[in-house]
Amino acid sequence: MKCILLISFAVLVLSGSAAYADAAGSGLGKVNAQCRLAEPGPAVWVNVVGLKDRTGLLKMEVYPSVEGDFLGDDTNLVNAGKTFRRVEMPVPATGMVTLCTRLPGAGAYSIVVLHDRNANHKFDKFSDGIGFSGNPKLHMRAPTAAETRWVANGGRGSMTIVMNYWHGFLSFGPVKGS
User: DSSP H helical segments within the chain, as ranges?
Assistant: First the structure.
């Protein structure tokens, strides 16, 4: 049973990473995603904690907080006129790590942060990290939209996302001591 759960989790995470690899250079979800300092919102500022190291890229994606859309294919979401935002940046060598994206308005969203440690635009579950709004405990499956739901009020909001990494057989969680 645990093996089936592990495979299911890997398939769900990798289905999103396939879109990451395919759309890495396409700009999908990036138009109007980057925050502008003088704007009052709506936007979300995400503090990322628990990074395993300071290498590679960080990618933040915003999805509708609805089952079926959360972690859905980015092309399908954009073509259907649904919310999808993507912001990428190199991991800073030092200091706080903060990502920001503009939102279309007040509402419920689910947010994912990926740490692509080797910057190859592919999610490798054995080395790369992942974190979700709400910081749900990962049980060898992707969390549900309800577990990751964050409600934006239309202004500037903020949250902290704790990164999770593979720790060995059937173990996925925050870096020890973070």
Answer: 2-23, 74-79, 145-148
One digit per residue, the tens of pLDDT, for the chain of length 178 reads: 333 333 334 434 434 444 444 444 457 788 778 888 788 889 999 999 999 999 999 999 999 999 999 999 999 999 999 999 999 999 999 999 999 999 999 999 999 999 999 999 999 989 999 999 999 998 778 899 999 999 999 899 999 999 999 987 777 889 887 6
Q: Which helix (H) or strand (E) holds 162?
A: strand 156-162
Contact 121, 138 (CB under 8 A): no
In terms of C-beta density within 10 A (0-12 exposed, 13-18 middle, 19 or more buried), how is residue 61 classed? buried
pTM of the model: 0.84
Contact between 70 and 145 (Cβ < 8 Å): yes
In sequence order, the 6+-apart residues with CB closer than 8 A to the CB of 69 are 63, 77, 82, 145
